[in-house]
Amino acid sequence: MLNHCFLCRNEDLKEMLESSKESLKLEAMKRIVGLIAKGKNASELFPAVVKNVASKNIELKKLVYVYLVRYAEEQQDLALLSISTFQRALKDPNQLIRASALRVLSSIRVPIIVPIMMLSIKEASTDLSPYVRKTAAHAIQKLYSLDPDQKEHLIEVIEKLLKDKSTLVAGSVVMAFEEVCPDRIDLIHKNYRKLCNLLVDVEEWGQVVIIHMLTRYARTQFVSPHSSSFIALIICLCQVVMAVSQLYWHLAPKHELSIITKSLVRLLRSHREVQYIVLQNIATMSIQRKGMFEPFMKSFYVRSTDATHIKTLKLEILTNLANEANISTILREFQTYVKSQDKAFAAATIQAIGRCATNISEVTDTCLNGLVLLLSNRDETVVAESVVVIKKLLQTQPSQHSDIIKHMAKLFDNITVSMARASILWLMGEYCEHVPKIAPDVLRKMAKTFTSEEDIVKLQTVNLAAKLYLTNSKQTKLLTQYILNLGKYDQSYDIRDRTRFIRQLIVPNEKSGALSKYARRILMAPKPAPVLQSAFKDRDRFQLGTLSHSLNSQANGYLELSDWPAVAPDQSVRIVEVVEPAGAPVFGKSKPGKSDEKFYSDSEEEEEEEEEGSSSEDSSSSSSEANLRFVLTSFCVHVESESESESEENSDDSNKSSSSQSDSEKKKKTLKNKKLQQQKPDSKDRYWSHAV
Fold it and tell me: Which biological process terms from the Gene Ontology are attached to this UniProt entry (predicted)?
């Protein structure tokens, strides 16, 4: 019934589209776009819709192109029939129509129209509308994926668009650069400072792309900054905060990293999707720089409303931040988490307690005793995880904790989780000499239930039998032979192979040869204690904020971050000659004239001369630092300028309200403001000269 109604609706829409009245066609297109917005499939209407692509009604044409952008890739044959119409639309007076036509053309994934697409992209890249040029940058990526052989021609277009001064185009062309030719760093040299200046006004997604590109650029073109100070970060957008944070992490000196801490912690109030990415990056940072986030430790306390993956990441960060000073506070917090109804989180908390016990020797015994108490917990998951962690901790000092091993052996019958049972059996076998009376009894119990156990438990049972045969053969010889016979005919080939190997190793015969002489050294060799490490320990090999870092696996298209060069490359590649218009003042090169002398004091002139002298002496050593500062402070320039203008306005308002101020004082204030405005270009130009 519903399908019949849907077909009837499509027929009605087709009739409206084929009507001679523009109003009916427009109404039909509005309904169709509405269906698409609701997720309905309107591809059957493609032939009726595409007929109206040449309509003279602008509003109708816009809706038609919205539809075509959605379905051109699915209905390529029908779209090809109207390709001449799309080409004519590229000359349409309306910029939205021109951009939509290019978008539809680039959505037709047919190799035969590659030359047409290439020509259209070249024409659109010189369009007067920045919106059309932005669309051309997007089309570059689509054409490259369709025909990689066009790379050289596309690079020419990218080089042209990189010179574009529009903030609307900057992010899109950098994205095209990253997709098509990320290794062509030479294309960035001349546009480096321009991109830094445009960065503040680019939309947030464009900012993220540009910042990632500038991070790679800085790591290849500048030496590592050892001593430089950067302006504080003032950013509010989530994506941009993450992008700038990774830029600071990879580029800034170590003592400047605390600048990004508050911004990252503030993002933890965002949606859980944002929290997840931010916490992943903080988890990586907190391993190397505990001091960055230690003052904000309470921000990582788990809330009852947090999702499991958020809780686990916060737990990871708290464990990374643990030290002798705050461990008591963290352990009290962990005691609450163990009681959580979220079993996966409770198990992760027990693992975190084990890590704290390993990393901080002062609390090892305290953590171990606490985990032993958890063995009496009613929750099977908690008990099982406690057994696994205790097993790892006991490997550090087994002789001092024989009582704990005995206690775990008594609980063996009540534990049903296979990993926990296997851990206890491993402990019995590894330290059987410390519990000579209990270990054979455990083996006797396992002989009864061997056939019904999981494979991991069976393997540890075979190992336990072999070790007891070597250390206490009088009491366990028959038990061992019985278990080896059971394993010989087990359904799992792993169990059968292990059984045959153990039999040849511990039971000497003519075929076993000399290997049986070393059975004790092989099976009873001392094992190194396991190192409990963070799951984020090795993630720093990936750039923060990338998909590869989030997945802990190199994703397609990931670009590795280069090491700092030992010697800075040629800095002159970023020098751009600016042709000043006739009559325009050249800032930073000419001294103030006589008419300006009354605006400057002698002390200020001396300071300027000293600054110019020192900059010429240290230009070679400070160029890399200045360039890095130029990247990192681009976000703050507009904020500073706004604050300056606000302060000037406030001062003017206060002057007007003050009745006691004389006319001469007001004139001095005005002259001072003019002086600031005149000084501004000079200081900016001096900064640019340092950044060369």
Answer: intracellular protein transport; vesicle-mediated transport
